[in-house]
Amino acid sequence: MNRRTSLAAGATATLVALTLTACAPSTGSPEPGGAAGEGCDGDAVALDVWSWRTEDVKTYEKIFDVFEEANPCITVNFQAHLNTEYDQILRTGLTGSDGPDIAQVRSYGLLQPLVEGGNLEPLEDLVPALGEFDDAILDGARGREDGAVYGVPLASQTIQVYYNTAIFEENGLEEPETWDDFVAINDKLLATDVTPLAVGARDGWFVPTVHDALTSAQYGGADFQQKLRDGDTDFTDPAYVDSIQTLKDLQKYMPEDVTGVAYTDAQVLFTSEQAAMFAGGSYELAFFQEANPDLELGVFQVPPPPGAALDHPVSPGYADGNWGLSAATEHPEEAATLLNWLATPEFGQLVADELKQFSPIPGVEFSDPVQQEMWDLYQENPAPYLLLVDYRYGDPVGTDLMGEAGQKLFLGDADAEQAAGIIQDGLAAWWTPGE
């Protein structure tokens, strides 16, 4: 069976099983009003903590056991909801009587409706450790109008290219140092039965991730972000158009009919070793390792092509979620105790070790060598995941527009200039450069 054109049935079945397991509701969560732990000499309180991370329920239960041992009068009821339903469930819950005390909340623009609705409490005075966090991370938790911090940052994500080291070795390939190296790698793999780049463009949200992984340095990364903020350019800028053209040029290295390939299909292509590279986020690491424990992984930043805005590669990154305090909680003192623990190195290290996520808490170390390499690359040459960081504050959001534009690009229904116009025209409904 040709690995470039077909998915392995066994790998697909494995992914389906993993997905169903991840989406299944937890049966082990403590019930609200749980009993006090050993050593509690006061009133027992149960805190409801909500999340969209259904795949992490068991791990979070393990993590919160550590907190409960040190705080025997407080029980944490961790409840996860489906990611696609969570935002609406949370908005309803925070305005009613049955909502959470503490909730995982989104970052940047998707946080603002909860802030503007008065559903969350500002935390700077309540959680002093926030003063030790990096300002760029805290930007993902700030109210746009008042600048107050409404969440304890949970994790940071980076975007780069994963590669199968065994496939590279079999084909005499090494990590690219130049754009020509990167193209040569893809060309050599194209001549084999291995798909060079595992990309699934049926799910529009994944397209801007792939675009930034492959071309952020080409359009200028943080420098381009600042030009947009200063009002010196917009998304029809030639450098940005060129980056979209590069995405189109690389389509020949992606699965055939890429707009018919789902994100999960792309994951299967990579974990079943039918594809050599995967342009994606650091959040993929734990899944990749679980889906195929024998997978040998490496990561690299894509070198910029000739004529790029930057002369060095970058890793885009962003703040991914926060812990927010419900304004309607009936247990503010106990909730504050938990929030302060969520800002400690102890919790951050558990996030790094158990969830394989980049905790933004100072002092956390990463024991997984691939995780450490991704973090080191980001620290050396960081860039923003642009459309997520700055362009989710209105409707339509930038990542959705890039998803639509990229799909049309791959289908041949739009060229690079037209795709850039889709993004610019959509954002113009609520955004003006420099404002």
UniProtKB/TrEMBL annotation:
<comment type="similarity">
    <text>Belongs to the bacterial solute-binding protein 1 family.</text>
</comment>
<dbReference type="Pfam" id="PF01547">
    <property type="entry name" value="SBP_bac_1"/>
</dbReference>
<feature type="signal peptide">
    <location>
        <begin position="1"/>
        <end position="24"/>
    </location>
</feature>
<protein>
    <recommendedName>
        <fullName>Probable sugar-binding periplasmic protein</fullName>
    </recommendedName>
</protein>
<dbReference type="InterPro" id="IPR050490">
    <property type="entry name" value="Bact_solute-bd_prot1"/>
</dbReference>
<dbReference type="InterPro" id="IPR006059">
    <property type="entry name" value="SBP"/>
</dbReference>
<keyword id="KW-0732">Signal</keyword>
<comment type="function">
    <text>Part of a binding-protein-dependent transport system for a sugar.</text>
</comment>
<keyword id="KW-0813">Transport</keyword>
